[in-house]
Amino acid sequence: MNEAMFAEYQEKFTCKFPKAVELFPDLLNDAVSKLSPQGVEAYLEGANFLCKIGQGVEPVLVYMEVMPDIAAHFGQGTNKMIADYGYQLARSPNKKALIPFLSTLGHVCRRIDKIEDLELYLQIIDEYVDKTQTVIHGHHSVHESPGMVALLESMPQLISKLCLKGIQNFIHYGASNYANSPNDQIAYFKLESHDAKSIITRERQGTTFKDVARHLEMLKDCMWDCDLPFQTFATAFDQLRKPVPYLDETIIAVPDVYENENGISGLNRYRATLAHMMAHQRWSTKLMADNFAPHIQLFISVFEDSRVEYLAIQKYPGLKALFLSLHPYPEKGACNDKEFSCLRYRATRLSRALLDENFDSENPLIEEFRQKFHAVMSEKGEDSTTRDMAELGSLFYVKSRKQSSDSMPKMFFDDTEVSYRDDNRFIWFHYEEYDEPDEIMPNEYEPEEKIIEDPNSLPPRHYDEWDYISESYRPDWATVYERLHPSADAGYIDYLMAKHDNLAKRLKKMIEALKPQNKKRIRFQEEGDELDLDIAIRSIIDFKSGQVPDPRINTSHTTDSRNIAVMLLVDTSQSLNERNPDTGQTLLELSQEALAITAWTVDQLGDKFSIAGFSSDTRHEVRYQHIKGYSENYCDEVKARISAMEASYSTRMGAAMRHAAHYLDAQQAEKKLMLVLTDGEPADIDVKDPQMLIEDTRKAVEELKGQGIYSYCITLDPDADEYVETIFDNHYTVIDHVDKLPEQLPQVFMKLTQ
Amino acid sequence: MDISQYKIENEPFYDAQSNEVELYEAAYSARLPVMVKGPTGCGKSRFVEHMAWKLGKPIITVSCNEDITASDLVGRYLLDANGTRWVDGPLTLAARYGAICYLDEIVEARQDTMVVIHALTDHRRELSLDKKGELIKAHPDFQLVISYNPGYQSLMKDLKQSTKQRFCALDFDYATAEKESHILQQEGKVDAETATKLVKIGEAARNLKGHGLDEGISTRLMVYAATLINQGIAPVEACKMALVRPITDDADIRETLDNAIEMIIG
Question: N or C, fewer C-beta in 10 Å, chain B?
Fold first, then answer.
């Protein structure tokens, strides 16, 4: 650029902020090198425009810095588009978002290709603003969208994980679920809340661990016969340090999502990762880390990784193709040891050479060690040790060392990461306690779980909840804690049974009628177990008298049996403490009586049967109390639990039903029935929209139906018709006279299972 | 009645797992009833057949099922032109003419059915045909052998103690890897390398027992796979067809086993 041109452009740049004037030459240089002359003019026009919108110098500078790249990619029209958009933002209540918008635009544009996508991006932001900026009634002003700044600042992270459609869903979810709580909205868009993490995981492309968990569990059992549990770590949040898989004595840690790599599906990447770590688990022993310099450790790791993979490939030859397709192939001469430390580059090349016999290293040293390695492996096979590899590794490092270059601060990283390998903490132990390897997974996004330390409780489980407004699931929304129901005096239940002695007698008759008849005779069979004499004689008479005899002269027997699994889910929310003014009994007491009698009935019938109580205190604590399991008899312990029932908190039915369903699902039975005994509609104190949990429960009933579980509701709420039909279709009974519950519940049960 | 039609002419291939051949011979020489237990497809029936051939005795096999009744075993009256006619059942046949009677998968039959064998299996060695009014004293060569699979024992399907306690028992399991590979080479006519790979697949699947699979892959299925490979089917396809599809309908297990097969065959 000559001085004349510069002067011409300088004249066109009318912005007179001192800072802008000072930086102008550099910025212009950059723009001129990337844009056409018309482009530069459009660029300067945009800058002049932003200069006049009354937001100071900063937007101008940021604009001038990011725009050359963007305009070079999308065309000069973007200058005006962005400047106009900036103006629109500056005029709106969200003017604080102008700088974050401009400064993250560069990141965003690097991830998108077409100008239409850029337009879509702006449109997505507009949609968010429309949804969240608030108008307070009576005031003629509009308030800013609380999460706007946080959202734009998180945009580089979001765009690196999600496509635009995914971002749109992410924003939509946050905007609609936190419309009334600005602080939560900010935390969500800062990606600090657990929900943000769940949604990103859901919207991400690639294979999530959740989708393939069962398959991997089985693969682990089947191919490696290993008992260690899996644990996932989040990959979406750490920008600086990318967490890698690891194995220790207690867990196998894998990423929550794997995207496709080199055309290898996420599932296959999980398989490769699993195979590699399982090979370590089977064949690696520990080395004292302090005995080796860090650089040597690197090469020992390479040899050890190669050794266990060699053994794994011996066992499962198919792994070789998988490992090869994922292992990087560092080109010859890619790393210049004058500028970079080539340690990692050398290590990866060595590793590739040990795995791939076609890798032509043309490097006598690598060739020499390749032969040494294969000599050890073919000689010793499974008897080779980590120690053998430590020798090879040390030797290789000593021979390949480049004194000055290796310790250069700039490390060459391209094509050196073997993504399916773990961090090898499994093979090292450290002398000093404080030498413990860093915790790779700083879990700042710990869900807000209360940890209940109790030997009678199980670890929490999370369930999705249906949001009928957005017609999507809120992932891992409700947390269910299952614990053993406390016990009280079992004699109380016997007393209740004695009280309902008459009822029990009547029920007993019904039970007898329902009970499977062990044998049923089927007459008139052509082939059967036994000759039916009456008919046989008749046939012979027919035959002798010249008529056509009836050939169906045998009888046979069949057994008919019931094969039903039943789950009785009892609402134990606070409202059960209400007293019936006439009888003085609480609903809870009636429920207890009903439970006792029903449990007795089902026990007599011999069906598989379990009972649980549920209540909830917000979505973070859904309590699920185990009263009777399928394998438990209806014994004193169970009775004691029923007699200890207490009522408290609210009714989050959907989560409880989903949790109960996972037990029912595991039962082998022809028919599966879930009876829900409740006194009111699903509700919880953290849900304002009364329709929300009703719709969620309806969805849960649908899900259960999909699993082959028939849900049926027995409600004590006389006004239940309004909602119970929405939820359970016509599978419900309303008990109008609550005192009749003990009588009706077992009858409903028997009617259903007839 | 020509009992010799039940004789086995050619030697059925059987590779002894341990000393079961000698044990069986000892039991037969004392005419003790024998029960062979073991998972499905591990070679129980083949063993009994082999022993019958070795001892040169005819063998009558009954595959039990839920519908089998006492009269199916003992015999029944059938109608013909002149009225009714008695026809011996397989058990009566074996007792009358001196054969080994082999009741395969006996738990499948209903418990009450099995009571008919009681008198045959103790010192009395007799079978009473009450409908015919005949008492058969068992032929000196007669022996009763039953097989069952304790794997899918359920409350409904178990032998009564009174039945169990009339037999001496041989416990079978899948053969060791080496033996199994030998069996596959013999029966499936595949080379040693393929046989070893098939055995590895079997081992992998057996690890899944209890995690969704009721039973592992049986030796019999592995022989099928070997036979298919021998027919020129690609090994991976043959294994999927013979080893995976028959034993599971669960998509995840199928995928897991398919993957294991691909990894093992390479």
Answer: N
